[in-house]
Predict the structure.
Amino acid sequence: MISRGTQAPKLERYKYQEEKRALEITRHLTIAVKFLKEKAYTNIMFGSTFSLVLNLVQEWNPGRRYSGESGFRDDLLKFLRNNLNRPDDLFGLSEEHSIRKESGRHLADIAVNGQIGIELKYNLNTKAKTDRLFGQIDDYLKGYDRLIIVLCGKTNEEHLDYLKEKVRKMRTDTFFSSSQVEIVVKDSRKRRKERDSFRLF
């Protein structure tokens, strides 16, 4: 027969272990909740930054008819630098964004905060150019969270539709997480912007 005197210390040890385990679970839950809150805040802020960048790209009108991508790129780069970090009209505040010209095989033409890639293409008028751009999109999405494709010069509607179809198909063949691609068309012949955007969700 086990005396009550022997049971008491065991009971105390059990209670202590359970309380310790409960405190540990609470600590982990607190850390998890904090992480989720921070992640949600980051996603909201990043989403609004992407929308702001996209709106500016859509508003941008090239200063003149350039003969190649580099002219359009530098014009857009200057426009983004002049407008993206401009103080808010209501509160006079602005968030500082990094806007830089990229250079490299796996890099887009322009990067915003190192997360948003902007790739410009001049005269998308052949299947070969469209296939190459599609390959670049696939490659860039490995390094950027969001991607904006800006088509300048003469854009062939048939090849544009072909590109969009290939990108839509890519969504079903690969895993995109929260990646998003937007296509903005700038028709230099009409000196006005046309845009065509779609989400990959």
